[in-house]
Amino acid sequence: MKHIILLFSIALLIFSCGGESSSNKVNHAKEAAAATQEGKILWLDIEEIEERMKQEPKKVLVDGYTNWCGWCKRMDKATFAQPDIVKKVNEDFYAFKFNCERKDTINFKGEQFTFKKSGRKGYNTLAPIFLKGRLSYPTISFLDEELNLIDAYPGAKTADKFDGMLTYVNDNHYKAGNLQSFLASFKTDVPAVPLVPKRTAQKK
Q: Are 102 and 48 in contact (CB under 8 A)?
C-alpha cells in the first residue's frame, strides 16, 4: 500500500511540474498575442526573460537605448511600431528594452550588474557586454537560447532592414555568413518606412 501511495505521489509531482511548464508557455503565448493585437512588442526585463527561458527557450532581441537618444525614439515610432515587425518579434523572440544608463542592479546569469559613473552620465555594467564594448545608441543585440551574445549591430534600422535582421538571426543564418551579405539578397514585404518623416513642401 505504501508503494502505491509513493508511486501516486511521484506521478502527481511529475504531472504538476509538466502542467506548470505547459501553463507558462501558454501564458507567454497569450501575452505575446495580446501585445500583437495592440500593435506593441512585448518588452520584458532580462531577469524575467531568464526565468521564461527555462520553460521555453527562444532567442532574445535586445534594444540598447538611452533616454536622450533621438534615433532610438525614431526607431520606436517607426520600426518597432510596424505591424509585421511586432508580430515577428512577439512570435519568435523574447524582447528586452535595455536602458543602458539604468541605475538599478540587474541580476543576469548569476552575476550582478550595477551603474558605473562615467563622464557626465554613466552606464550599467551589463551594457558593454550586450553592446560588445561599444556604447553607441541605438544598438540591436541578439542572444541565443542559452543567453549567450550572438552579435551586436549599432545604428538605427528601418523596418525592412530590421525584418532581414530578425530572419538572419532566428533562422540561424548568422552561423553561415555575415549580415550584410545576407541582407543583400533578402526579400521582404515590409515597407521601407523612413525613420525621418519627409517634410511637406511649404507653400510660397
A: no
